[in-house]
User: Which sequence fits this backbone?
């Protein structure tokens, strides 16, 4: 397979009006100026700017590498008594009380064999496994002072999520925490952009997680790190993913090139992060849905941002930011 690699640049559709909260990207990349990448009105504006700055790592372009502690302060791990003593999925903090994750991650804890509840699901009722969100952790096995554990009060699954149809593009959920997180240097939300945000094929993004990794010496065995890993990935064309996923790749999906940096079990639900260099802010650009087993596929499926942005916006507002 020949992967489609366009010049790395990001183009953001110009807003029809000047937004007072806009984070304008003015970086010149291959002669293209990236236009406004704006924070959605009503969402936190103190966001996406960790106190500890990530250092560029060339190795992150070819493999999952150890992240610097507390550089991905919006990344969360999901915990449930029914899933074991480790973060079985990832998530992204978009306010002090809301987390975006994959719908199938929540589904695992609902224990509903015949149907999925619609609307706002109370996750504290007795016949559901308790679901918790861990924030501020680097090594999830260490009980350091930066850790904050919050129980999930409510969950809302995207109404078009269909469990029996893999990769239908709406594998997304919003979690409402029982208690707000305490925002500090090690914990804080990422910025949530307006619907005009659009990255071109070849644009670089990042993801982080405690998900499985394949090392050259592991002989094909998936290993599970205790400390957070990260990888730099690129937006790929839909055609690239269609060659691997056939009819399962929906128009509401986006394709990410993760050659050598594949997501593993435990990374689902984690976010795709884009950096606005001019304003030094990070933005959420979708959640990881799935990837092929045993790192055989060089592509990972994520939500198409434009397909879910309006639902995230309206649901977040109704739950309360």
Assistant:
């Amino acid at each position: 397979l020949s992967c489609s690699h366009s010049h790395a640049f990001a183009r953001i559709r110009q807003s029809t009006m000047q937004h007072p909260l806009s984070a304008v990207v003015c970086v010149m990349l291959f002669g293209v100026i990236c236009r406004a990448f704006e924070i959605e009105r009503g969402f936190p504006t103190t966001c996406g700017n960790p106190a500890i700055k990530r250092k560029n790592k060339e190795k992150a372009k070819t493999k999952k590498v150890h992240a610097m502690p507390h550089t991905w302060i919006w990344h969360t791990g999901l915990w449930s008594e029914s899933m074991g003593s480790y973060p079985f999925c990832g998530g992204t903090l978009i306010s002090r009380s809301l987390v975006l994750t994959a719908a199938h991650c929540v589904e695992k804890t609902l224990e509903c064999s015949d149907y999925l509840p619609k609307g706002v699901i109370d996750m504290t009722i007795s016949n559901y496994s308790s679901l918790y969100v861990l924030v501020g952790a680097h090594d999830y096995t260490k009980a350091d002072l930066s850790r904050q554990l919050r129980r999930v009060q409510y969950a809302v699954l995207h109404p078009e999520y269909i469990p029996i149809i893999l990769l239908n593009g709406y594998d997304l959920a919003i979690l409402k925490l029982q208690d707000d997180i305490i925002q500090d240097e090690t914990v804080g939300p990422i910025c949530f952009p307006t619907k005009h945000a659009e990255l071109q094929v070849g644009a670089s993004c990042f993801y982080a997680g405690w998900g499985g990794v394949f090392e050259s010496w592991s002989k094909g065995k998936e290993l599970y790190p205790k400390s957070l890993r990260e990888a730099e990935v690129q937006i790929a064309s839909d055609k690239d993913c269609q060659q691997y996923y056939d009819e399962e790749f929906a128009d509401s999906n986006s394709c990410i090139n993760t050659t050598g940096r594949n997501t593993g079990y435990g990374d689902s639900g984690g976010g795709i992060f884009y950096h606005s260099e001019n304003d030094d802010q990070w933005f959420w650009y979708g959640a990881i849905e799935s990837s092929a087993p045993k790192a055989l596929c060089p592509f990972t499926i994520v939500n198409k941002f434009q397909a879910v942005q309006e639902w995230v916006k309206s649901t977040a507002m109704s739950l309360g930011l």
Remarks:
- Confidence is low (pLDDT under 50) at residues 1-35.
- The CA atoms of residues 48 and 190 lie 4 Å apart.
- The longest strand covers residues 281-291.
